[in-house]
Amino acid sequence: MSKRIAVLVTDMVEEIELTDPVKAYEDAGHKAEIISDEAGKTIKGKNGDELTADKGIDEAKASDYDALLVPGGFSPDLLRINPKNGDFAKAFMEAEKPVFAICHGPQFLVETDLLKGKEVTSFVSVRKDLENAGATVKDEEVVVDGNLVTSRTPDDLPAFNRESLKLLK
């Protein structure tokens, strides 16, 4: 059964952490939509690639999607500026829908106030933020805690995609 995945990003996203999982999801028959500040926005990636937002955060509803992907780079930190992004992610976590976050992506999930007691991993520089939010941080290629899948870096993408796809079944 095909699932709809919201991909929440803005400028300075680590492109491979968006494109690689999206390709894996689409190859498995799922559909991914890029959500950003506004529909049609050109998102400038960390390495110079450009992507186009399918929907703006003001029109996106978590209830329309089966899962959420938060790629890394500097995008997660910039997403924290608009509280609507945090509310969007929080709706997925409260509904116990799958949430996939890689690299700096888990840092953005601090905005949900729902990391207390969760086991996660992330890029090394944001681990203290996750601990301060009450999460237990592990240094593993992928950590699955219920419907939450987290990974550290692009090197972990094969494990991240594998575990994400398991939750989409």
From TrEMBL:
SUPFAM superfamilies: Class I glutamine amidotransferase-like. Keywords: Hydrolase, Protease. One of its GO terms (molecular function) is peptidase activity. The keyword Transcription does not apply. GO terms for biological process: proteolysis. InterPro entries: C56_PfpI-like, Class_I_gatase-like, DJ-1/PfpI. Residues 3-166 form the DJ-1/PfpI domain. PROSITE patterns: PEPTIDASE_C56_PFPI. The keyword Hydrolase applies. Belongs to the peptidase C56 family. NCBIfam families: PfpI (TIGR01382). This is Protease I.
